[in-house]
Specification:
Helix content is 24%, strand content 22%. By secondary structure, the chain is of the alpha/beta class. It folds into two domains: 37 residues; 203 residues, Protocatechuate 3,4-Dioxygenase, subunit A (Sandwich). The strands form four sheets. Strands 1-4-3-8-9-10 form a six-stranded mixed beta sheet, with no helix packed on it. Strands 2, 5, 11, 14 and 15 form a five-stranded mixed beta sheet that branches. Strands 6-7 form a two-stranded antiparallel sheet. It is built from six helices and 15 strands. The chain is elongated and about 80 Å long. The structure holds benzoic acid and fe (iii) ion (FE).
Length: 286
Amino acid sequence: MELVTEDNITDLAAARWGTAHDPRTAQVLTALVRHLHSFAREVRLTEAEWMSAIQWLNRTGQISDDKREEFILASDVLGLSMLVVQMNNRLDPAATPATVLGPFHIDGSPELGFGADMSDGLPGAPLYVHGTVRDLDGKPVGGAVLDVWQADTDGAYESQLDVDEARLRAKYTTREDGTYCVRTIAPLGYAIPMDGPVGELISRTAISHFRPAHVHFLLAVPGYAPLITHLFREGAQYLDSDVVFGTKAELVVRFAERPPGATPDGGSSDVPWLDARYDFVLQPEG
Ligand code: BEZ
Ligand code: FE
């Protein structure tokens, strides 16, 4: 019988978890054990530190519910979410890059028509985001659904508020020629939730806890790789210090100031509005 020592415990634990029935699970759990142990060795983890980490994980679970995703937030600020996005979306350079989903997406948004207003009268500068959805050959993708969501001008998402109706989120479908048009309000930069365990940790560092102004898009179109991304406002604060590492140069878009007059939905605006034009490029599935 092999008794446990500080030197052999890693091999013993890895071998034990390597018995997982599914080979991929065995691979992942074995590597997890090895990396966890080597982390503890590298920092010479004390028992008090181990306990405070366990308590932090407990609080992270306790504060999470169907609306608050503190573990996703933790993964985001540690750069893990974006690393996983990068590794799994090795896109053709011509395709629109992916970025983090974030914790605020809500399923089942209402379907709105071309140019319909998803801000429903909320205060903010009128913004039209419009363009086309195309494939890598430049062919328009008609019937593509764009699931869109964003924060209000206080930086709050619907799931952070006590509201009954869909707020600043909607689904738009491209027309046969691949065109789409979203009417909303200009997003502002905002702070990630700082009132939980993730905020506790961040406030012990010099990390900026802000995200640059952006609108989220999710395009799940049959035959194409799903695309989860954002469009960021050109010139916005925090573009180069995004707390979740989500900013990419290709996703930064000019919000051009336009005077009252014709708008991209074919209508017109009595007040000045912002014009953001962006063409999404999807890559084939698989
Ligand atoms: C977001 O953009 O909604 C978001 C992403 C990651 C963490 C917090 C917020
Ligand atoms: Fe966001």
